[in-house]
User: What shape does this take?
Amino acid sequence: MTPFDQRRHLIPFRSQLLPHIFTDMLVVGSGVAGLRAALEAAQHGDVVVLAKESLDLSNSNWAQGGIAAAIHHDDSPESHFKDTMTAGAGLCEESAARTLVEEGPAQIEQLLSWGMRVDRDSKGSPSLGLEGGHGHARILHSDGDATGRELMRTLISSARERPGIRLFDRCFAVDLLTSSQGRVAGAITWSPRYGLQIIWARATILASGGAGQVYRETSNPRVATGDAIAMAWRAGAWVRDLEFMQFHPTSLYVAGAPRHLVSEAVRGEGAVLVDRHGARIMEGFHPQEDLAPRDIVTRGIVEHLARSGEPCAYLDARKIGSTDFARRFPSLERMLAGYGIDAGRDLIPIHPAAHYTIGGVRTDLDGRTSLQGLYACGEVASNGVHGANRLASNSLLEGLVFGRRCVVAALRDTLPDPVPMQLESRAQTVVAGELDLGDVRQSLRSAMWRNVGIVRHGAKLADCLDMFAFWGRYALGSVFETPEGWEAQNLLTVGHLMTRAALERRESRGAHQRADAPREDAPPAQHLDWQIGHDTVQRTAIATESATR
Assistant: This one.
């Protein structure tokens, strides 16, 4: 058994010695899923929302792409459903995908009623864009390429106006608290102002996003360290399909620069992928060429780079022109200008980067996890919507739809009031000396990028697991007192789980590409489920609509 399979808290504590807070619902995470859940919960009771740093620092806020929803009279939820299923490469749960597309339009109406601004055409109707994998123009945007920022402005403003919502920024959720019967009763948290605290809650909702920071090359903000996945794992919840990490095809590739996302909407406006000589990369690779699903475009770029030996590909947006590019993508235009790039005249150097954690904590259609009192939504959850590859712009919609559904389910479950328990953790250090956390984190992220990146191989995955076993023996046996240490332990846990799952899935499907297991050898689609303390994987067949009716 590895160090990752031993149930333990990250810190020593005695519950009766710590300050206590009581609430009806605790929401861990302040992105779109967490705030949508909080707004729903505030209609029925008291809510506490935890943001690890500032409220607006999240993947949701960084989203350049828009929100996909079938709201045009020429479009339909059925068409959106089919596109979602196609992108998911056989691993989407049909009931989850249908729930997303059928409940999505109502969530858009709710956002508009809360005051969210969206781009509109000359007639005043929402202006709908086209992105990869979509058969219709159904993507709503705000300010061209700042949809996430406007969405979060709307949700944060609405949450601040609700008296039943308490927003705790710079508050790190360290571990979940569970009773002897396995029911989750809240979490132990830390903040620089108050130190350690216990928050008791009738229901706890995990909505703290993904784990893109486990990779050296990522479009994610620094807070995306997989904390909620690791917490749920340590508490005994089932996790699912963690081998599936979506790599966005186009992140800026400039030496020394962060991997800024170059929105898929740029290709929707006519930009194409080329090499340094201007030759098209996706032409003839797939019928949808540059607007194929993300896993296919990413694979096309990677295969081209392997053949050519070039360090990056390029996005050619020159046909859009400088003026129209600046009007359509003002934030992107300003960012590129900072590196001396004029998209109307210059090729934009790009390379794929880790972008969206598809797998996560296993939930049902209502966000219930395998632990009573614990729910999950958004990027941290694996509810069957995305399958093996997320369809572009479905993530913000998923956060809205399933954030609400989590709360509805928790209310229906009639959970008991939180009752303080006598809890004690005797976490003890087994390592002498200090650890260089920066070196641990850098080594981990580099190893993940080399061995568990876009194209994987069984032998390299096995070697990476050995590295994790070694790192885990000393890093998980250390006790830290600040988020930097807890984040490192969470990244190690999630990296181990991703690598373990990638080795177990001996096929190429969607975002998971095995060089030693090509697509034509793939078995029937199955989910891979894991739980702490068990060495073997649980394989679950995909539920069809006929089977669930």
